[in-house]
């Protein structure tokens, strides 16, 4: 009876893991072989990787992806930190309204937000209809709930009020204390939150496709356009993008675990 | 000497960036969607024509229905698989559980366009499994059509599984060993334990997970777009179609569709909140 | 003119809840005074209003001859130690202590010298480079004290700094604080809800209750002569008795007022009738007793009045439950209370 359950559990885990890994593994193998007409592929090659890395268009799209992912993350993080400064030290009552504003994006994920933004700003004069400006704004909203929640939890775990008061008594202004004492303590949490937000934007397709399209070719758009041309090149791109995301999210997890440990140590 | 109390509100300046961003890119677009939904194409006046069109045209009825259907079915499938997987992982050794969790963490990043592509090379017209099916006469592989709503469903189920299981694992961690022992002491068997104790106590969290998954697939776009382009009746695709591509664009109509989708989203979020509150109270 | 003067301090939240009700209080230079009271009595609020961390609704605060009512926190020249650990986690011990001096843009060598002296004063030699997370609670509070005194503040405020620290270490830190205070002759206001702690530490205690100062005085004075029912209950294990209760003891006497307080140790218990004319006497029955180390605490009953008495634990004077004892008390130990 006991052994049977174990076998059954093991089988489930194996099947689920296999189903999840199969498409991923396949994409990888597809990118390193020239032919795949039967069970096993033939003609091992790294030429597809060599190809995309020598393709300026791909490198540029990758750089665009990275830049367009970093800028909104930085803006959003700073904006939220400033808001947290005000709500923890001056107007705690404001928090519930801010929280509502930060939760609305859950309900207007992706396509809805993009539709709202383009139909509002397209054709408007000046910078307001600038696609990149709109893209940055849209991404700020997409990551808003996650950044807010991440940073708020982080600041909640610290004894901000008391620490700031201690600094004030020692002759330091509130703002100065917030940036020299509180923020450095949140460093790890801030970085891991930013990296999580980064991977969300980095993986985006819908918003960039609707707002900018081919006017701002990110790696996602580049991949979409390559798909109809070369399967192997596409899979090589996927592997590269995937590894990038994976590295960042592994790093994020590591930083988060450390951050949790250090706050625990602090409380003890 | 009179010192006046310094009561300046300079600190409110710190709120400016946040409010500028949310006003320009959240509040205004949101209001805009609502207003444009009731504005005739091209502007001016008030109309319900978009909603009449949505609810009377087969394509849009089908889109709403398909979106709900694929979200419900993929979420249900995700829940069932995640339930079994989380239960198994919970019973497994820490080492196996860690490996399995890593697989989930890794594959939870695999979604959107890359996922669609992976399934194309797996099960597309010249996909590897399709070829194997053809070469060896395995009917269901050879005849599997990825480019239909059922094919799409498979990809949706794929991206639901890691997320659902990652959400379910901590829930299973909350099941107390004592409960099982108590059921045993009271003369109950494993059936009693699962159906009278464990599942009822997990239910609020499971339903909460369900609505997260529902919203997740309702909003999903990349996979469907990469797989089927505009050739499928699905809400997000129909919305984006009003803004991109060569087809005549109709922004007001797009807003009306977006509003419908938003309402579906809000409903699923309200349900989540309700269950989470109940879960917290329990 | 006192060194610190609180004049008519009122504080209310939302205009209704009065936390401080027109408090007048003087503190002399070099004194260690304690604000003692139960939680919510307003003692911390009063302390924080002196620091400038809490706005007051009306009143005036004078420090060293200067009206500081509207002076910003940073400019008041005050040192403070908080109940919660408030060290800067991203800085080591040295940097924590030097923080205020650096803000004041003091010369680097001067800072080093002062920090070193402060570290020595609180016995943290060798911990200069440690981070707060590596220190025990007691050590963290010592750093906090050093961080405050290194600024040579006009007044040192201690807001229940020891309440999170376990009993044994607490004794040690109480001694430490007292020694540092005497050494530097620094005017200090200490807030606590622990009456033992207040007794040990203070030159003077201000007992607070519901936003007013109930009684002020030297520790012994407060202990032996509580003026109100609240003070009697809060300070010791006083028996609070009504005139009716006292009439049960001494039927021939009549007592005015509402309440009387009798300290448990002022009762004399005896097997033999008490002959000494200085004592008022009556008989009571032993209900129960417990031993608290060197003290025996009896629960006694006379008619329907139950009261407690404490005597030093001497084996020959043990009364079993059910026994009848003769009880004597000197009249001056019947303290009539104000309310």
From TrEMBL, chain A:
Claim: Ubl conjugation is one of the keywords in the record: no
Compartment(s) of residence: Cell inner membrane; Cell membrane
A Pfam family reported for this protein in Swiss-Prot or TrEMBL: BPD_transp_1
Domain ABC transmembrane type-1, chain residue ranges per copy: 62-252
Keywords annotated in UniProt: Cell inner membrane, Cell membrane, Membrane, Transmembrane, Transmembrane helix, Transport
Membrane topology: Multi-pass membrane protein
Gene Ontology biological process terms, A to Z: transmembrane transport
Record family assignment: Belongs to the binding-protein-dependent transport system permease family.
Protein name: Binding-protein-dependent transport system inner membrane protein
Organism of this sequence: Faecalicoccus pleomorphus
From TrEMBL, chain B:
UniProt-listed Pfam families: BPD_transp_1
Domain ABC transmembrane type-1: 64-272
Keywords associated with the record: Cell membrane, Membrane, Transmembrane, Transmembrane helix, Transport
Membrane topology: Multi-pass membrane protein
Primary location: membrane
GO cellular component: a single term: plasma membrane
Record-annotated membrane-spanning stretches: 12-35, 68-89, 110-133, 153-172, 193-215, 253-272
Localization: Cell membrane
The UniProt record lists the keyword Phosphoprotein: no
GO biological process: transmembrane transport
Annotated PANTHER family: INNER MEMBRANE ABC TRANSPORTER PERMEASE PROTEIN YDCU-RELATED, INNER MEMBRANE ABC TRANSPORTER PERMEASE PROTEIN YDCU-RELATED-RELATED
Protein family: Belongs to the binding-protein-dependent transport system permease family. CysTW subfamily.
Protein name: Spermidine/putrescine ABC transporter permease
Organism (species): Faecalicoccus pleomorphus
Gene transcribed to yield this protein: potC_1
TrEMBL record, chain C:
Top enzyme class: hydrolase
Domain of life from the UniProt record: Bacteria
GO MF term set: ABC-type transporter activity; ATP binding; ATP hydrolysis activity
Name this polypeptide is given: Putrescine/spermidine ABC transporter ATP-binding protein
Cellular-component GO terms for this entry: ATP-binding cassette (ABC) transporter complex
UniProt gene name: potA_1
SUPFAM superfamilies named among the record's database cross-references: MOP-like (SSF50331), P-loop containing nucleoside triphosphate hydrolases (SSF52540)
Pfam families documented for this protein: ABC_tran, TOBE_2
Record EC number: 3.6.3.20
Native source organism of the sequence: Faecalicoccus pleomorphus
Record key words, sorted: ATP-binding, Hydrolase, Nucleotide-binding, Transport
Domain ABC transporter, chain residue ranges per copy: 4-235
């Amino acid at each position: 009876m006991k052994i049977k359950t174990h076998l059954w559990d093991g089988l489930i885990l194996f099947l689920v893991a296999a189903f999840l890994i199969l498409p991923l593994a396949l994409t990888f193998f597809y990118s390193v072989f020239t032919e795949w007409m039967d069970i096993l592929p033939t003609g091992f090659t790294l030429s597809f990787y060599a190809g995309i890395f020598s393709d300026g268009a791909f490198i540029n799209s990758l750089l665009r992806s990275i830049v367009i992912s970093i800028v909104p993350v930085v803006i959003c993080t700073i904006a939220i930190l400033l808001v947290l400064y005000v709500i923890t030290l001056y107007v705690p009552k404001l928090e519930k309204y801010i929280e509502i504003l930060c939760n609305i994006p859950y309900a207007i994920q992706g396509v809805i937000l993009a539709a709202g933004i383009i139909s509002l700003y397209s054709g408007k004069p000046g910078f307001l209809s600038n696609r990149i400006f709109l893209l940055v704004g849209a991404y700020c909203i997409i990551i808003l709930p996650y950044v807010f929640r991440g940073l708020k939890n982080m600041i909640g775990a610290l004894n901000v009020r008391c620490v700031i008061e201690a600094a004030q008594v020692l002759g330091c202004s509130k703002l100065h204390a917030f940036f020299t004492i509180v923020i450095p303590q949140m460093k790890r949490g801030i970085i891991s939150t930013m990296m999580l937000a980064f991977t969300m934007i980095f993986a985006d397709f819908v918003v960039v496709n609707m707002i900018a399209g081919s006017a701002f070719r990110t790696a996602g758009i580049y991949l979409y356009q390559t798909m109809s041309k070369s399967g192997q090149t596409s899979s090589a791109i996927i592997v590269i993008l995937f590894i990038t995301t994976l590295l960042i999210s592994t790093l994020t997890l590591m930083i988060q675990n450390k951050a949790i440990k250090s706050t625990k140590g602090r409380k003890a | 000497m009179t010192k006046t109390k310094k009561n300046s509100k300079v600190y409110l300046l710190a709120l400016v960036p946040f409010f500028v961003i949310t006003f320009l890119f959240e509040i205004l677009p949101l209001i805009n969607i609502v207003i444009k939904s009731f504005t005739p194409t091209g502007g001016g006046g008030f109309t319900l024509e978009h909603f009449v069109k949505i609810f009377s045209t087969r394509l849009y009825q089908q889109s709403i229905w398909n979106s709900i259907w694929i979200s419900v079915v993929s979420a249900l499938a995700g829940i069932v698989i995640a339930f079994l997987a989380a239960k198994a992982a919970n019973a497994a050794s820490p080492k196996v559980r860690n490996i399995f969790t890593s697989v989930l963490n890794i594959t939870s990043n695999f979604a959107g366009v890359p996922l669609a592509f992976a399934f194309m090379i797996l099960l597309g017209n010249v996909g590897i499994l399709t070829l194997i099916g053809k070469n060896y006469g395995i009917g269901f592989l050879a005849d599997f059509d990825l480019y239909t709503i059922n094919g799409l469903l498979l990809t949706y189920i794929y991206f639901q599984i890691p997320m659902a299981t990652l959400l379910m694992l901590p829930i299973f961690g909350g099941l107390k060993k004592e409960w099982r022992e108590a059921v045993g002491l009271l003369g109950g068997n494993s059936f009693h334990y699962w159906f009278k104790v464990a599942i009822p106590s997990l239910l609020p969290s499971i339903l909460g997970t369900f609505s997260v998954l529902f919203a997740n697939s309702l909003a999903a776009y990349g996979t469907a777009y990469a797989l089927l382009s505009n050739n499928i009746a699905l809400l997000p695709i129909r919305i984006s179609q009003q803004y991109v591509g060569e087809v005549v664009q109709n922004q007001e109509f797009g807003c009306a569709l977006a509003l419908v989708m938003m309402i579906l989203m809000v409903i699923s979020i309200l349900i989540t909140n309700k269950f989470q509150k109940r879960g917290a109270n329990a | 003119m006192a060194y610190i003067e609180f004049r008519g301090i009122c504080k209310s939240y939302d205009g209704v809840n009065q936390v401080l009700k027109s408090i007048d209080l003087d503190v002399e230079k070099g004194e260690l005074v304690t604000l003692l009271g139960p939680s919510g009595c307003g003692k911390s609020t009063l302390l924080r209003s002196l620091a400038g961390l809490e706005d007051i609704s009306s009143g005036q605060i004078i420090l060293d001859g200067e009206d500081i009512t509207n002076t910003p926190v940073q400019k008041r020249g005050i040192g403070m130690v908080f109940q919660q650990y408030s060290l800067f986690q991203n800085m080591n011990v040295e940097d924590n202590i030097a923080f205020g001096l650096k803000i004041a843009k003091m010369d680097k060598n001067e800072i080093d010298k002062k920090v070193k002296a402060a570290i020595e004063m609180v016995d943290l030699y060798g911990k200069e480079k440690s981070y707060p997370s590596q220190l025990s609670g007691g050590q963290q509070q010592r750093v906090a004290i050093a961080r405050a005194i290194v600024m040579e503040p006009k007044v040192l405020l201690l807001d229940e700094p020891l309440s999170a620290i376990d009993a044994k270490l607490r004794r040690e830190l109480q001694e430490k604080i007292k020694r540092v205070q005497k050494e530097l002759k620094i005017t200090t206001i200490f807030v606590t809800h622990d009456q033992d702690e207040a007794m040990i530490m203070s030159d003077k205690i201000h007992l607070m209750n519901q936003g007013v100062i109930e009684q002020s005085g030297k520790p012994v004075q407060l202990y032996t002569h509580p003026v109100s029912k609240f003070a009697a209950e809060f300070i010791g294990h006083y028996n609070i008795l009504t005139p009716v209760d006292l009439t049960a003891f001494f039927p021939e006497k009549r007592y005015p007022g509402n309440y009387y307080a009798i300290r448990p140790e002022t009762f004399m218990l005896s097997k033999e009738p008490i002959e000494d004319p200085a004592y008022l006497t009556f008989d009571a029955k032993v209900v129960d007793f417990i031993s608290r180390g060197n003290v025996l605490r009896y629960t006694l009953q006379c008619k329907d009045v139950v009261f407690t008495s404490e005597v030093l634990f001497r084996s020959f004077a043990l009364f079993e439950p059910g026994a009848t004892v003769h009880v004597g008390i000197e009249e001056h130990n019947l303290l009539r209370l104000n309310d």
